[in-house]
Structures are given as C-alpha cells and as structure tokens.
C-alpha cells in the first residue's frame, strides 16, 4: 500500500502542503489543469525552487488578481467544490476539511457553522490550497496519509480579528485529540488550514512508520526562520497496519519531546 507521511518538524500550512506534494512528484501542470475545474476565478498558481538552510524545496504561490475576493460562508465553498468536475473522492475530502474549519471557527466565535464568514480561509487561495492538497495526494496515488505530532509556536498572530495568541484559537479547536508539543518558536507554525487538512487526511499521528521510501519532497513556508521553515513529505510502500494515534481519537500518552523538536520514532501514540 502506498502512503504519504507528513513530517511536520516546522509545522504545516496549505501552501507548504502544495509545495511538498509537488516536490514529492505530483505533476504540477496536471494539478493546475484539474484545479481549473473549480468554478473560481481571479488567481494564478505558480511555483519556484528555493533553498532553505541549504535544502532545496518547492515554494507554491496562489497569486490573486487585484479585485477583492468575496467573504464566503460554508455553503458557498461547498457549492464551489461540488460544482467542479473533480473526482468524487477529492470533492468529499475537501468538503470535510472545510466542515472541520467551520466547526472550529463556530466554536471560537460562539455561533453556528453556517453563519461563519471564513475571511482568510474563505478566499480563493485557501480553496486552492485545500482542494489542491487533497488532489495532490490523489495524483500521487497515496492510499493513506500519516503525520508526525505537530509543533506549536508561541507569541501572537495578526489576523482579520486583530492580534490573537499563537496557536490560533481555531487551530487548537481543530487539533483536539491530536498530539502536539511546544516548539519554543515565536510565531505561527500550524495554521488553521494546515490543522484542518492534516487532522482530516491523516489516519494517525506517529513517528515514521515502517515503509520503503520512494520519494521525499520539501514544501516551503513563506516566512524566514532560524530553523528550516519546511514541510517534508515522504512517500512509499508500507505494511497495512502502521502504528499511531487515529485522527480524532481521544487521549494519548505523553510523548516525551526533548526541547520540543525531537521525538522517539519508535514511540506509539495511543
């Protein structure tokens, strides 16, 4: 069985996912062509190769036209996804990511998912990030995805609502029952979109499962940091029953990170 393992040593965001998928072998031109099935306009998808701390990575950009993108409700986004000609599996998983985002935002703002204005995550770039990530895994032929535990930043984040703490409240809501650890880094490492993607798509959270590695790709984040701001994606063949915490499962053991950056790859998270 072919799997994809997201090694989130510097966190995860939608654009980092796209870059890692392309770097790991997802055909960029095919990805662009299939994303054009989405009934949205006003953007151009492009990529570039860069180096962070000497590591070659792919940086993906969703360039927006000058006109302002509308604020969208959950119903609007689901309609956009349903109105595409993408494979049913891609549509269903993409809608599940946005449903998870809406539930978290509704909890934070004390309202209902249907009344949420998505602001940043309702813009066309986030729609492209989410659907593009699900589609990229489909193009790679990955039957299942897994992830490392997620590093949390600290400090404050500037957003549409003003200054909020890091991790963002919506991010923490999304990551209930997902193993996380403090990375001791100022800033936002895991975005709400990245949290919703990985918590929806990952079968479990653990160290690297037993696998025969086929490809390794690095997707770049946009911010410069002292450490390499990269997401590593490893694909390969594995046994049918890798270990880890099922996404959404309640409770897990302490995972004993040292200084927030290391974990024992043989340790199980239950």
Automatic annotation (TrEMBL):
Keywords: Lyase, Nickel. It comes from the Bacteria. Residues 241-270 are annotated as: Disordered. Coiled coil: none annotated. The keyword Electron transport does not apply. Residues 251-270 have a biased composition (Basic and acidic residues). Signal peptide: none annotated. This is Nickel insertion protein. InterPro entries: Ni_insertion. GO terms for molecular function: lyase activity. Pfam families: Ni_insertion (PF01969).
């Amino acid at each position: 069985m072919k799997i994809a393992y997201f090694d989130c040593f510097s966190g995860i965001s939608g654009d980092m996912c796209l870059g890692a998928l392309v770097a790991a072998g997802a055909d960029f031109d095919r990805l662009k062509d299939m994303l054009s099935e989405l009934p949205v306009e006003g953007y151009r998808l492009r990529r570039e190769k860069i180096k962070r701390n000497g590591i070659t990575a792919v940086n993906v950009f969703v360039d927006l036209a000058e006109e302002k993108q509308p604020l969208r409700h959950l119903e609007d986004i689901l309609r956009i996804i349903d109105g595409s000609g993408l494979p049913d599996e891609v549509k269903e998983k993409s809608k599940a990511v946005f449903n998870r985002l809406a539930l978290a935002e509704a909890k934070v703002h004390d309202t209902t998912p249907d009344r949420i204005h998505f602001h940043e995550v309702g813009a066309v770039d986030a729609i492209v990030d989410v659907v593009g990530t699900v589609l990229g895994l489909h193009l790679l032929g990955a039957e299942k995805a897994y992830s490392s535990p997620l590093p949390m930043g600290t400090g404050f984040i500037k957003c549409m609502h003003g200054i909020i703490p890091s991790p963002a409240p919506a991010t923490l809501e999304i990551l209930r029952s997902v193993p996380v650890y403090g990375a001791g880094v100022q800033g936002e490492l895991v975005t709400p979109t990245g949290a919703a993607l990985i918590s929806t798509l990952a079968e479990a959270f653990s160290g690297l499962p037993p696998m025969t590695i086929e490809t390794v790709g690095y997707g770049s984040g946009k911010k410069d940091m002292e450490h390499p701001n990269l997401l590593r994606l490893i694909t390969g063949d594995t046994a049918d029953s890798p270990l880890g915490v099922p996404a959404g499962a309640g409770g897990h053991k302490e995972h004993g990170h040292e200084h927030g950056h290391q974990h024992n790859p043989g340790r199980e998270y239950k």
